Structures are given as C-alpha cells and as structure tokens.
C-alpha cells in the first residue's frame, strides 16, 4: 500500500526547500570561487608578461642611451686647444688734440637757417 500526500506540512516544506536552497547556495559559492581562482591565474600570467616586457624595455632603453652617447662622442669635434692671444702694447692716448665740436654756424647749412633768425622770447 502506498501513501498519497494530500498536503505538505509547513515544517516539511521548509526543511526540503531549505536543503535545496543551501545546496544551490553552495554550488553558486563553489562556482564563484572557481571563477575567482581562474581570474587570479589570468592576472598573474598577465602581470608576469607585463613585468617581462617592462624589463626588456628598460634594457633596450639602457642600450639605446649608450649607443646615443657613443654616437655623440664619435661626431663631437676634437678638443682644440685655446688660442694663445698675442698681446701688442700700444699707447691708446690720442696723439693730436681732439677736434672742436662742430657748430651749425660754421657749416654750409648755416645759410638755410640765417633767414629765420632768433625769435624774441615772450
């Protein structure tokens, strides 16, 4: 003879549903943890690749800097010794008297200004 369930008791329904919810929650948590571990592995690999590329770039930068220094040194003009100045001693004082200051009255242009004459001050 079999049992026919006509109605569930609330405690029984809660127990069955509670177990199902807990099991579903565990599955979700395990899946989330697996996904997190996977992303951590991906991040570690990416970081290792980035660190390797950065190291290679730093080495390349050092090599290029050294090459530039060598290239500049090879095209730099050779050091020429400073020229030695030959000093000639002379007397710089004038040998003749300084000319007098030029005046308009003595110049050929004086005739142009003669017609105007001096103005009387007011």
Helices and strands in order:
Elements: H1 10-75, H2 110-114
Structural account:
- It contains two helices and no strands.
- The protein has 122 residues and is mostly helical.
- It has a domain of 70 residues.
What oligomerization state is this entry in? Answer: single chain
Give the SSE string: HH
Name the shape in a single word: elongated
Q: What is the residue-averaged pLDDT? A: 83
Question: In percent, how much strand structure appears in the residues?
Answer: under 5%
Query: Structural class given helices, strands, pairing?
Result: mainly alpha
Largest sheet: none
**Low-pLDDT segments, ≥5 res:** none
Number of strands: 0
Helix content: 55-70%
Helix count equals: 2
CA-based gyration radius:
53 Å
Please give the alpha-carbon distance between the first and last residues.
150 Å
Structural descriptors:
122 residues, mainly alpha, 0% strand
Would you summarize the structure shown here?
The chain is an all-alpha fold. It is built from 2 helices and no strands. It is 58% helix and 0% strand.
């Amino acid at each position: 003879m079999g049992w026919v369930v006509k109605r569930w008791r609330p405690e029984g329904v809660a127990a069955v549903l509670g177990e199902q919810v807990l099991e579903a929650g565990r599955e979700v948590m395990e899946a989330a943890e697996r996904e997190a571990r996977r992303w951590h592995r991906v991040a570690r690999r990416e970081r290792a690749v980035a660190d390797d590329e950065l190291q290679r770039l730093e080495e390349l930068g050092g090599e290029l800097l050294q090459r530039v220094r060598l290239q500049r040194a090879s095209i730099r003009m050779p050091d020429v010794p400073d020229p030695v100045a030959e000093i000639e001693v002379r007397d710089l004082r004038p040998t003749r008297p300084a000319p007098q200051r030029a005046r308009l009255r003595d110049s050929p242009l004086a005739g142009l200004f003669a017609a105007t004459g001096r103005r009387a001050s007011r």
